[in-house]
């Protein structure tokens, strides 16, 4: 769905989005989803710019490549734009997640609406700590990571694995997930995961996010 190639005027390479456009559309969707929860009906490109740090001209260019979504002097209809961007990103519908790690971070993720707001549903939670096994976290009991992982991935139709585990545990777990058929890994650890080309890894680091914010503060 996403290509890491130079952007064309419409942000596509063939029928696929370029990496830059896909990343920006995802940021717009994050802001729009929150605006929708707050009851906001319309939003301007300048408001989207304020929240995403993307130039408003770039925002209008990104969106105009896929149709006419906004009205001059009125802005964009939040509800409609959320639906349209989800279609563009091909994320409409429900997608199942397995969460690995039932510590403080894992519990926060399981109890948050952040994934559900974007159509992702946590369907299984795993941990290898004997003291956590069987505990209820969110809506699920903590399971042990074991040989039945492939079966659970198939039965629950899991497309994304979220790793909220210690750095040392991340690579061995990623290897198990690849063997079980998981194609997308969202990594909250500091590990630099090695996976086959067909598996996508996204690493989220609070330190990197802080550096990003600091850059805008200093400039």
TrEMBL record:
Residues 27-66 bind DNA. Transmembrane segments: none annotated. One of its GO terms (biological process) is negative regulation of DNA-templated transcription. GO terms for cellular component: cytoplasm. SMART domains: CoA_binding. Its main location: cytoplasm. Gene3D superfamilies: NAD(P)-binding Rossmann-like Domain, Winged helix-like DNA-binding domain superfamily/Winged helix DNA-binding domain. Keywords: Cytoplasm, DNA-binding, NAD, Repressor, Transcription, Transcription regulation. GO terms for molecular function: DNA binding; DNA-binding transcription factor activity. NAD(+) binds at residues 101-106. InterPro entries: CoA-bd, NAD(P)-bd_dom_sf, Rex_DNA-bd_C_dom, Tscrpt_rep_Rex, WH-like_DNA-bd_sf, WH_DNA-bd_sf. It is found in: Cytoplasm. Residues 93-192 form the CoA-binding domain. Pfam families: CoA_binding (PF02629), Put_DNA-bind_N (PF06971). Homodimer. Belongs to the transcriptional regulatory Rex family. Modulates transcription in response to changes in cellular NADH/NAD(+) redox state. This is Redox-sensing transcriptional repressor Rex. It comes from Conexibacter woesei (strain DSM 14684 / CCUG 47730 / CIP 108061 / JCM 11494 / NBRC 100937 / ID131577). The lineage of its organism: Bacteria, Bacillati, Actinomycetota, Thermoleophilia, Solirubrobacterales. The gene is rex.
């Amino acid at each position: 769905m996403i290509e890491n190639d130079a952007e064309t005027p419409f942000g596509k390479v063939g029928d696929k989005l370029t990496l830059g456009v896909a990343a920006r559309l995802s940021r717009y969707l994050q802001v729009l989803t929150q605006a929708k929860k707050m009851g906001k009906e319309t939003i301007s490109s300048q408001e989207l710019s304020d929240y995403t740090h993307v130039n408003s001209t770039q925002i209008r260019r990104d969106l105009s490549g896929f149709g006419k979504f906004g009205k001059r002097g009125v802005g964009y209809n939040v509800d409609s734009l959320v639906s349209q961007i989800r279609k563009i990103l091909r994320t409409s519908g429900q997608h199942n997640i397995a969460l690995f790690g039932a510590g403080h971070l894992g519990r926060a993720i399981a109890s948050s609406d952040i994934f559900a707001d974007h159509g992702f549903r946590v369907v299984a939670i795993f941990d290898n700590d004997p003291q956590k096994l069987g505990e209820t976290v969110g809506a699920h009991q903590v399971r042990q990571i074991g040989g039945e992982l492939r079966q659970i991935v198939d039965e629950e139709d899991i497309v994304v694995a979220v790793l909220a585990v210690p750095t040392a545990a991340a690579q061995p777990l990623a290897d198990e997930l690849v063997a079980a058929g998981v194609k997308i890994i969202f990594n909250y650890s500091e590990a630099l995961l090695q996976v086959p080309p067909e598996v996508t890894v996204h690493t989220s680091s609070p330190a990197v996010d802080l550096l990003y914010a600091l850059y805008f503060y200093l400039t």
